[in-house]
């Protein structure tokens, strides 16, 4: 396991990661077994053999974050999808591929991710939280779109496009054929922003 700067984490970081994983795993199992609404943070902490204060120290956003922890991963992934796209690939094609490879659109997810995804899709509170976490990336994505378009900063059109892109997973995931809905959304976005 390496840190974001490529170094090997120390003992303290490994212990924190293990505690976070234990809490997240306990939450997933309890939510699947009893239902999201019937599980308290105290029960999750007890199942992970930690204190409630420890749970909130690691997941200050509460129950939703135990399943959909962000820790900046979404913004880093969006940045990589845009900046590291293959030469000749449009920004919108790169972002379509990015979302198509993630839950709930990817077809070859590991079992643990599939279980989490199924829980999120059938739990309104988790769906709302997932949308909120994506929308929090709007300013960063608008900046990336401006950078890709060769602009110093995003104009209103790029801010709107960033919001549309980040709303797409929520909208498409509720359709019977999620992958087709995602493709249709990006086809329409490309019509509106053909230079991206």
Automatic annotation (TrEMBL):
UniProt cross-references to SUPFAM superfamilies, sorted A to Z: Homeodomain-like (SSF46689)
Keywords for the protein's UniProt record, in alphabetical order: DNA-binding, Transcription, Transcription regulation
Gene Ontology molecular function: DNA-binding transcription factor activity; transcription cis-regulatory region binding
DNA-binding segment(s): 40-59
Annotated Pfam families: TetR_C_14, TetR_N
Identification of the protein by name: AcrR family transcriptional regulator
Organism from which the protein derives: Glycomyces lechevalierae
Family annotation (InterPro entries): Homeodomain-like_sf, HTH-type_TetR-like_transc_reg, HTH_TetR, MftR_C
Keyword 4Fe-4S found: no
Residues annotated as domain HTH tetR-type: 17-77
């Amino acid at each position: 396991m390496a840190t974001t700067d490529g170094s090997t984490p120390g003992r303290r970081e490994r212990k924190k990661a293990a505690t976070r994983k234990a809490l997240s795993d306990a939450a997933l199992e309890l939510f699947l077994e009893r239902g999201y609404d019937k599980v308290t943070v105290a029960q999750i902490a007890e199942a992970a053999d930690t204190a409630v204060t420890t749970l909130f120290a690691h997941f200050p956003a509460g129950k939703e974050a135990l399943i959909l922890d962000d820790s900046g991963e979404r913004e880093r992934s969006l940045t990589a999808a845009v900046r590291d796209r293959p030469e000749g690939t449009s920004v919108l094609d790169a972002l379509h591929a990015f979302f198509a490879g993630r839950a709930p659109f990817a077809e070859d997810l590991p079992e643990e991710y599939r279980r989490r995804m199924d829980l999120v899709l059938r739990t309104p509170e988790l769906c709302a939280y997932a949308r909120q976490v994506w929308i929090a990336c709007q300013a960063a994505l608008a900046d990336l779109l401006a950078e890709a378009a060769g602009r110093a900063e995003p104009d209103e059109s790029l801010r709107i496009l960033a919001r549309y892109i980040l709303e797409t997973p929520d909208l498409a995931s509720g359709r019977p054929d999620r992958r087709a809905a995602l493709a249709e959304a990006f086809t329409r976005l490309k019509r509106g922003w053909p230079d991206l």
